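Journal club prep — side note

Before the paper discussion, L.F. wants everyone to see what a predicted structure for a comparable chain looks like in token form. Sequence:
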Amino acid sequence: MKIIKSLYQSCTSRYFALMLFLWASIQNAFAEGVDASKIPDFKIPGVDSSTKDPMEIIAIVAKSLVTLAAILLAAGAILVVVKALISIYNEATSEGGKKGWGHFIVALIVGFIVIFFCLWLVKLAVGLF
């Protein structure tokens, strides 16, 4: 119990110090003011263009939908991998579990491959713009 209490106090003091540092950094940034010349000029596809061509508008919407689908696929893949890893871990650590640590390590490797592939697809979809 003493170990948990000392660990909790150590973590809370470090968290407090970190939050105090971040708060001071933000205050310092606001005190100096924002230099508008350093803010880049972002061009948002579809919003900043003054096109009236329906085919170009449809292409922009299609690219946006592909990007949204890739992001949702990646989020779904991450959730499936995490759920599978949790269930295999619980099975590996239970007394009468049939699966061992080998199954967990294989699931971990395959899960990371699936996640990186989905994130690569997101990168490709964002690259359409």
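L.F.'s comment for the group: The chain has a mean pLDDT of 81. Keep this in mind when we get to the figures.
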